[in-house]
Specification:
elongated, 7 strands, about 15% strand, five-stranded mixed β-sheet, about 270 residues
Length: about 270
Amino acid sequence: MSGNFLTQVLGQSEHIHVLIKQSAEELGSVNAGIKHALANSDPRPGVKSSLDKNEAVTRQLQDASEKLAAVSQALQIEIRDRTMVDHQLAAAVEQEEGSRSAALHDKLTTLPNRALFEDRLEHGISQAKRHRWILAVMFLDLNKFKGINDTYGHQAGDAVLQAVAMRLKHATRNDDTVSRFGGDEFLCVLTQLHEKNEIAMIAAKMLKAIQAPCDLRVGDAIVNPCIEATIGISMFPKDGAGAATLIKRADEAMYWAKENKSGFAFAQ
């Protein structure tokens, strides 16, 4: 039984209690008036019998009013207890959802972590098999990130990672997944693709977004680090049938792209 329903029942109960109490008071007043009118005369038997019945009804109404008041009090306690339980349950659900989210997301960037990424990648592979789509895995590494930490400090490095995470989310589609793999490495899975050119266009868009000038507040200072990245790309089913293989091939392609300073490269 919901708290709202109990509140409605309580409202109705209190309304009925007021009506019964008023009726008992009015009937008692009528009885008193009749008795006063008959005080100096000998009432007929029928009148006396009716008066006795009125008094009996009055007592019954008063008794019903007291019982209904007790029921209303019990309902108030039930509503209070139920409301408290509902609040505790809502708090427990919120805490559980928060714990689950924390276990599956990177604390610094709030992006999906490696575990959640691999789960979504496996699901994406299943969907790609069913619909005969192309799926792409991108392994992204920030260039010279250590230099940013050394020059501006680790607080600036964290701000760069947060900025990159936001830019990657904006540069990809709603159905894609961007994840922080660890350190200055990110993973992306792109789904529902039909040709290689689509992947190249998204990779170029991601690099352009990352390299855009940015002003980052670090303490009381504003810093302007130069952010660059390299992307390696693997495709399903061409480069592998499983998540681990696709990630490995994308990682290898990323190193090849770094050596050739090409920005991004597909697995060979």
